[in-house]
Amino acid sequence: MSDNEKRRGRTWSAFTRRLLVAATMVGGGLIFVLNGPPSAAQETKPVPMALHDIAPTDGRQTAVFAGGCFWGVQAVFQHVAGVASVTSGYAGGSAATATYEKTETGATGHAEAVEITFDPKQVSYGKLLEIYFSVAHDPTQLGGQGPDSGPQYRSAIFPRDEKQAKVATDYIAQLDASGVFSRPIATTIEDGKTFYPAEAYHQDYVYNNPGQPYVVIYEKPKIGALHRLFPGLYRQKPVLVSDSAS
């Protein structure tokens, strides 16, 4: 486990203690403590459906999204009906630098990303984009997400073909024109980039570490937002990497 990951745990354990003290002092702060502080992960809102989408075809398709720490993005899409698998990994750089330690330097070109394998007859690429922009992360943040800063935490879409690139580009323009966000969308479209799976200890991280302070404050609220905004697509039992490996 890297020093950066250990730092996350130490930092947010201390921050959680400070929140408890503050809640005790002001009174009536229990809900605030349980949900954590206002953050990009919690400022979720419904967004319009994509006006353009990819027609469903037989067989599974893949999508690759980056939006901050891959723990929470993976966890969100693991709860989406029609998704067959979600793998945390790296996209944007080379195979030689596709490791957690190297990516965390911010100098590899990689972003923490997830590869989603899905059945387009159950959930479309456009619908995955809708979930990505509304609950998986804040697409207007530049240079990181929430407490995580650096290009490795950027908002980026890595289309697998020209159709995905076109739908994603059109959807970003649609959302910007709609005014649903108060700031322009910062998400980049990065073509022709290979996805590399992350180390085993990063897979299913939210499921395996439900009480970790960073997870409680920043990642689990995203799953609640998915349930609230997409009840018809939400499934209680997540599809796990460990299930497919067993």
From TrEMBL:
Q: Does the keyword Oxidoreductase apply?
A: yes
Q: Which Gene3D superfamilies match?
A: Peptide methionine sulphoxide reductase MsrA
Q: Which domain of life is it from?
A: Bacteria
SUPFAM superfamilies listed in its UniProt record: Peptide methionine sulfoxide reductase (SSF55068)
- Coiled-coil residues are none
Q: What is its EC number?
A: 1.8.4.11
Per the database record, which ranges form the Peptide methionine sulphoxide reductase MsrA domain? 62-214
Q: Which reaction does it catalyse?
A: [thioredoxin]-disulfide + L-methionine + H2O = L-methionine (S)-S-oxide + [thioredoxin]-dithiol; L-methionyl-[protein] + [thioredoxin]-disulfide + H2O = L-methionyl-(S)-S-oxide-[protein] + [thioredoxin]-dithiol
Q: Which Pfam families match?
A: PMSR
Q: Which GO terms describe its molecular function?
A: peptide-methionine (S)-S-oxide reductase activity
Identify the keywords attached in UniProt to this record, alphabetized: Oxidoreductase, Plasmid
The UniProt entry annotates the active site at: 69
Record's keyword annotation contains Oxidoreductase: yes
Q: What class of enzyme is it?
A: oxidoreductase
The record, for NCBIfam families, names:
msrA
Known function = Has an important function as a repair enzyme for proteins that have been inactivated by oxidation. Catalyzes the reversible oxidation-reduction of methionine sulfoxide in proteins to methionine.
What does the sequence similarity comment in the record state about its family?
A: Belongs to the MsrA Met sulfoxide reductase family.
Q: What is this protein called?
A: Peptide methionine sulfoxide reductase MsrA
Q: What is the scientific name of the source organism?
A: Ensifer adhaerens
Q: Which gene encodes it?
A: msrA
